[in-house]
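Hey,
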Amino acid sequence: QAQLVESGGGLVQAGGSLRLSCAASGRTFSSYAMGWFRQAPGKERDLVAAISWTGGSTYYADSVKGRFTISRDNAKNMVYLQMNSLKPEDTAVYYCAADRRLLYSGSYYQRSDFGSWGQGTQVTVSS
């Protein structure tokens, strides 16, 4: 399994930006799709964005389309989530996750497809 460590969370005002980073180790990072999930208190952990192993295909939840951008750097074993125009409803713990499927390049993802998780990083957006 991959080991994943998130960073970059914090407190930001509505309309501001944050960039989350996820450092991966422990397996061939570049061969697996990656995703960012978030979980607000009392709610399910939902997929926010995902990126294929090549970086050529991405998925975004409707709630973040046009505001968030997922990217990856396979040479550095890193995946990023650039979050712009943040809203109070974006407040959550954000988790980086690695897909179980080798060389997956599609655009359909569900939580059960992800087998490795980071510890999470808190994002708080104040109004």
